[in-house]
Design a protein that fits this description.
20 helices; six-stranded parallel sheet; Rossmann fold; alpha/beta; about 700 residues
């Protein structure tokens, strides 16, 4: 009634009769006036986003040197023909439709007729007129061009480059050739005989198994594919096979350099975390046990350095830890094992491999200076000179000894940078670039060390492209990642223009088997909301067990992975769940469990972890941990158990790169999974939650 009065005021005097078209038009005008009268809501400012590459298409120099190939996607799903397809509109039968509320309100009021015949005719005329108006409106809407749906991630990435014509003849199964019989046997024992290659694995089999012709430069490839698509297999198979072929081929063009250092690997795999290094090394061993290659992981149990002339080993170890030198590099190879085990493939973090190549404690001065600056002992960016009693300059006292290098780099033929978007970000890029330069220098072809600002530069223009000197490493160079930030894409186009990019059709998307769900905080204790959602998952498991169980037995409850943004949040949530009878594992970068030299602290959560727990209480979440709470530390590359079907993201993701990697820990290799995103649906912060929903919807498509 209020809308009708406002409508009469808008139409002016003398408007006792209102047609349906007038009511429809005026209602739109009133709605617009109401929206304009409302005050704009105060929305919190969005944090800066890490942008993904808009396209993997090479730019600058790479336009004429680089290549891009996108694996073909599966045929699109087509529905069956509808029953009335091909019939004329007059022949189609549609069920009677009830009049909607808006149509009922749009019935114009009429004066009372003089007799029944006039009333019937007036109603009939009005019905015909109203019907014709609705038909005209529908036709007008149909004639309008369709409005393109805006992609909320359009500013971050747009993989719209056409696939190369050569990508249509990719292999559809693992076979020998191109695989060696022994390598194929190990692969089938690991994946099963009926396993089929994914898109990125098929592209790798086509391009990376070609034998290198004499005089041809080394291979440079980027393998870009979504999480859980098997990128480890995509690069390990060609690396292991080439190592075996060059081992037996006496006429190989790769000269084997002799070195007095204990370890002289022929291939290196760089990973951002020790957990991922151990997983990759274990997987490489399972693939090479038939062809007999030697694989080693630079993550062994903590062994203190041998003291020189200043105290015992325990004192030396304490000094290292006190200066922050060995807090993140706790793995060394014992003296007794040096020289006893030649190695073909070595897996480790860039900083650990630098320590093995340059000697333990090689950067103790820099780390001690950084630590002193953090605690306020150094007031400026440059180290202050220490004045002696005679007034002259005196070098700071040397407190640590640098151990002898234990690894030579002369024989390195392959370098794989796994999770390249992390190892080339500001936290890792310096050690990564330093290690690559050391390998090139050891092989007799030194390359310049790229400045730290290289990854933060904007896409190159024609003017700047000519001033940048491209890098050509004297070894096969592979990079792999599930997300390609703009900074990494620009770096590769500038310094590696001839690099070939192999991409899957679902890059920057979630696995199709992974569903997303958004849940709201109740406004009370957030930890209690998380607990209730965890118990709801287990209640659903119990319901499924009651319907499918064929006999007595314990209920197999799902295991969950919970991601937080801050270390303090991880510890707080883990303590709350423990008090509520839910035993969980809390893992952060400084956790003591990470210093044990193995992944046993993740037993029961990783797919290829330690022995499966057995015995009573293994299915009881109050006795055996069923929840793993962590930060982004474990969001990269780790292959979690299929028992983890739910990933909880309880803090707003900093960017979609972070979200894709966290959510991708479930729904791997075709397994079903669900990612639950917590947020606010009402009040302050709800606007940001709505934006996150739109962006999640875009990557889930």
């Amino acid at each position: 009634m209020a809308s009708l009065l406002a409508l009469r005021q808008l139409l002016g005097p003398g408007s006792s009769e209102i047609t349906s078209s007038q009511f429809h038009t005026s209602s739109i005008v009133l709605a617009q006036l109401r929206r304009k009268s409302k005050k704009p809501s105060d929305k919190p400012s969005s944090p800066p986003r890490t942008r993904l590459a808009k396209s993997l298409q090479p730019t600058g120099k790479a336009k004429r040197l680089g290549k891009l190939e996108i694996a073909p996607s599966r045929p699109e799903f087509k529905r069956d023909a509808v029953p009335h397809e091909g019939l004329a509109p007059q022949q189609r039968q549609s069920p009677p439709r009830r009049r909607t509320t808006s149509e009922s309100r749009s019935v114009p009021k009429h004066r009372a007729p003089t007799d029944d015949a006039d009333a019937e005719a007036q109603v009939k005329n009005w019905a015909i007129k109203a019907h014709s108006e609705r038909v005209d409106r529908r036709k007008a809407v149909a004639r309008q061009p369709p409005v393109a749906q805006s992609n909320p991630l359009e500013e971050e990435f747009d993989l719209s480059a056409p696939a190369a014509s050569s990508s249509k003849d990719l292999p559809i199964q693992f076979s020998s050739p191109p695989l060696m019989p022994g390598l194929l046997q190990s692969l089938q024992e690991t994946l099963g005989k009926e396993a089929r290659p994914t898109a990125i694995q098929a592209s790798s089999m086509k391009h990376l198994f070609n034998e290198r012709v004499e005089g041809e430069k080394y291979k440079e490839f980027l393998l870009a594919s979504e999480t859980g698509s098997g990128k480890s297999i995509a690069y390990l198979l060609p690396v292991l096979q080439d190592l075996k072929l060059t081992e037996h081929n006496q006429s190989s063009t790769v000269a084997h350099h002799s070195s007095r250092k204990p370890l002289n690997p022929r291939a290196l795999v760089l990973a951002p975390t020790h957990e991922l290094s151990r997983q990759l090394a274990s997987f490489a061993k399972s693939l090479s046990h038939v062809i007999k290659l030697r694989v080693m992981c630079a993550s062994k149990a903590n062994t203190p350095s041998t003291a020189k002339s200043s105290g015992t080993a325990s004192k030396m170890k304490g000094k290292f830890e006190g200066a922050g030198v060995a807090s993140d590099a706790e793995f060394v190879i014992s003296k007794s094992s040096r020289g006893s085990r030649p190695v073909d493939l070595l897996v480790g973090t860039p900083m650990k491999l630098l320590e093995m190549e340059r000697g333990r404690g090689w950067n103790w001065e820099e780390r001690a200076r950084e630590r002193a600056m953090r605690i306020g002992k150094v007031k400026s960016e440059e180290h202050e000179d220490i004045k002696g009693e005679d007034g002259g300059n005196k070098e700071p006292p040397r407190e640590f000894w640098v151990d002898e290098p234990e690894m030579g780099l002369e024989n390195v033929q392959w370098v794989v940078v796994d999770e390249a978007d992390v190892l080339f970000d500001p936290d890792f890029q310096e050690s990564t670039r330093m290690l690559l330069a050391d390998i090139a220098a050891a092989r007799g072809s030194p390359v310049p060390v790229i400045p730290s600002s290289a990854l933060s530069s904007t896409p190159d223009s024609e003017a700047t492209a000519t001033s940048i000197q491209s890098i050509s490493y004297p070894f096969n160079f592979l990079l792999t990642s599930a997300t390609i930030p703009t900074s990494l894409a620009t770096y590769l186009s500038n310094y590696h223009p001839s690099l070939t990019r192999l991409a899957s059709p679902r890059l920057h998307h979630l696995p199709p088997t992974l569903r997303t769900e958004h849940t709201s905080w109740t406004g009370g204790n957030k930890n209690a909301d998380i607990e209730r959602r965890i118990r709801r998952v287990w209640a659903e498991d119990a319901l499924v067990h009651s319907k499918t169980a064929t006999g007595p037995g314990p209920i197999k409850l799902s295991k969950l992975l919970v991601f937080c943004n801050k270390r303090s949040k991880v510890e707080q949530l883990a303590a709350f769940l423990d008090d509520r009878g839910i035993k969980c594992v809390a893992l952060t970068g400084g956790a003591e469990a990470r210093k044990r030299g193995s992944n046993h602290h993740l037993d029961g959560f990783l797919k290829t972890g330690g022995p499966v727990p057995m015995g009573p209480g293994v299915c009881d979440p109050a006795q055996t941990p069923h929840v793993l709470v962590t930060t982004s530390l474990l969001s990269r590359g780790l292959d979690f158990s299929p028992m983890i079907k739910h990933v909880f993201i309880v803090d707003e993701p900093r960017n979609m790169i972070d979200f894709l990697h966290r959510a991708g820990r479930a729904g791997r290799a075709g397994e079903a999974g669900k990612v639950v995103v917590f947020g606010r649906t009402k009040g302050r912060g709800s606007g940001r939650t709505d934006e996150v929903k739109q962006r999640v919807r875009a990557v889930a498509g």
